[in-house]
Design brief:
By secondary structure, the protein is α+β, with helices and mostly antiparallel strands. The protein contains nine helices and 20 strands. The longest helix has 44 residues, at 386-429. Residues 1-175 form the TLDc domain.
Amino acid sequence: MVGRLTEDQMDILENMIGSSPKSFKLLYSITRDGRSAADFHQRCDNQGPTVTVLYNPRGSIYGGYAGVSWQSSGGYTADDTAFIFQLLFSGKRVVNTFRPKNVSKALYFCHDDSPHFGAQDLKAFSKIVSLNTDGTFNLNGKLAVGTYYHSNNVTNENINNGIMVVTEMEVYAVSDEARKSPPKGTAWRKTPNLNAEYTSKMTEELSLIKPQSGRGITDFRLLLVGPIAAGKSSFINTVMSAFAGRVIHKASVGSSDNGLTNKYMPYPVRQEDGSCLNFRLCDTPGIGEHSAMDVVNLHFLLDGHLPNSFQFSHSHHVSTKTVGIPIVVILTKIDKLHEEIEDNLADIFKCQEIKAVVDQVSETLGIPPNHVFPVKNYHSEMETEVDMHGLALIALRKLICMASDVLEERISGSEDSLAESTAITESDTA
């Protein structure tokens, strides 16, 4: 598994640590290796210097460096090289290094604790961590820089947004050797230039795709499923905008603890002349603690047998069937990863930070990286933007092509089954 730290962030940490070039090897990931202190110690004890990195859902990245090996017991331990750091705050680059006031209490070793710096100046968690329905983790530790570490007059809320919730926590072994960095400007995914010519070609190509004839299927239905406020409805509006030539706001978007979407709603996509294309984007309620989209409703939704405008509720469920469908992941809000990304969408496939997230999603869900697509949806823009359209259309083409392949396979399978059944019948009556 490739960690989420980017080359630029490794450069920053390398400068903070000092002395010589550094390499970073991922030892532990909370999403991959487990949510307990025992899991952490099994992978990270006696591994030499380490960097612990926490990523929270509000776009902040912070953590700590330990210059000596973690142990399962021993109490306070001296480390004159240890420090707490931050790399991003709310999606913007904010670099700070917080050094120890009291070197003799820089680290704390305990078998029940994950990485623990000072008197809970930074303690990730103890014992075991709870997993939220949206895939985030509630760390039961604490951030209180200022006791045994200098705060540099930075409040803790301006480091972790006042929450101990993370989308990922990683621990890297740090070694004294130069790492091999990819050449600057090298694309990790080859795509055409995201310009007006390309988006025009893509919209024309996608407008011509139709389901295989002869089966009564008039359009593809592309189902969007994800957490509350993930950007499903915004993605629908972005795709519609690419074909309409103007910013569309048909699917409801906005901020709400329970989400604004509460129905299964297929949206047709229209061209500038008003004609409908042969696919629909199907919006669904966001998955969350208080959402009507619970595990039961999600299971039956994936069966593909819900009527249009089906009203989801906690008490009303539908019948039982299990049909697998192919998965494509749309990574929305990629501009939140780094403040410079929003202004460089055309170079998104050269950004190693985006690649790290794509690789992580691929590893976590067990799907190929080419099934994961970064996009940015319309939010505050008043006019259409070619780069945004290009990213959305690349993802849309993958969705439609996979739907077409699955439909063809199932039609072929049905015909084969019918042929076998007919052959057996004829044999039995002969």
